[in-house]
Structure formats: C-alpha cells, structure tokens
Amino acid sequence: MEWGTLGVAAAGALFGIAATVITDVFRSRREKHQRWVDAKQVAYARFLTALAQTHSRMTLAAAREEGGPARRQAIHDAFLSDPQHADAKSVLREVALTAPDHVHRAAESVYQQLRAARDILAEDGTDFSTLEYQQVIRPFFDDLDALQRLMRDDLQPPAERRV
After folding, report:
1. Per-residue buried b or exposed e for 107-127, using 16+ beta carbons within 10 Å of the residue's own CB
2. Among candidates 93, 87, 89, which has minimal Cα distance to 111?
3. How many whole angstroms separate alpha carbon 68 and alpha carbon 55?
4. pLDDT for 57-115, tens place per residue?
C-alpha cells in the first residue's frame, strides 16, 4: 500500500469523524434549545391557566356569598386554593425562572392586577358591575391578552419574533 493512498484514507476518516462531531454538537444544541422552549411553553400555559381559573373561582365565590367576613374569606380562599396545586403565585415563580425579564415583568404586573381585583371584589357592596371593579378588571384582561402575545412571541424562533 502506498503512502499517498494511506494518507487520503486517513484524511477521509478524519473528515468523517469531524463531520459527525460537528453534526452531533449542532443536534445537541438544537435539542437543548427545544427542551428549553418546551419548559417555557409549559410554564406559560400553566400561568395563563392559573390566572384564568383563579379569576373564575373568585367570581364564583363572590356570587355565592352575601357579604361581610364570609365573603372576604371565600374570595381570598378562592384566590389561594387551586385544586390542581398550581396557584398563580407558584406558577409565577416558574415563569420567573424560565422567561426573559420583559415577559416576567409583564406576568408580575398581570398577577398584581388580579390581586387588586381580588381585594376590590372582597369588599362589601362590590359586585361585578361596580365602576371600581370594572376599572381594575378591564385592564387585567387587556394586559392578560398582551402577556399572552408576549409569551407566544417569546416561543417563536428568533428569526420570526416581532420584538
């Protein structure tokens, strides 16, 4: 066997090994990125669901209770008691771990608006039609929609993002 043939075969083997290593590195990065996106998607969906379900539980509690301390307690319990153990505050912490800062700040703001709605709804004489409640709940739903758009945009590949 000639040295030239052996050299070409060795170069081909090195080229093949290098191509395989490079392909594996790119695949590994892609899979890691996809796992991160999947984790964010789960946290985002859980947070949006927790907010919506918390609001629903609060409104049901407010509609059932007449007033006074029982109403206030029922609304606060509805805010804190998630039967799936995924209350909004807990899931907000998941969002804090996975989301970029601008998404987390928006999520924190929406959560604070829901807390404000809870406090107003828990007051005696407040129902769903009072101006005070409407002034808090309308921006909550508007900001909830904006947060959902931010989250959806964050989950897009970088080339398709609107930010």
Report:
1. beebbebbbbbbebbbeeebe
2. 89
3. 20
4. 999 988 887 778 888 898 988 888 877 666 888 899 999 999 999 999 999 999 999 99
With beta carbons less than 8 A apart as the criterion, state whether 95 and 103 touch. yes
Closest CA to 107 of 72, 154, 37: 154
Tell me if 121 sits within 8 A of 58, measured CB to CB. yes
Q: What is the pLDDT of residues 19-47, one digit of tens each?
A: 887 887 778 778 888 888 899 999 999 99
**Does the global pTM surpass 0.85?**
no
Q: What are phi and psi of 146, to 5 degrees?
A: -65, -40
Nearest to 51 by CA among 135, 152, 137, 131: 137
Chain centroid to Cα 33, Å, comes to 17
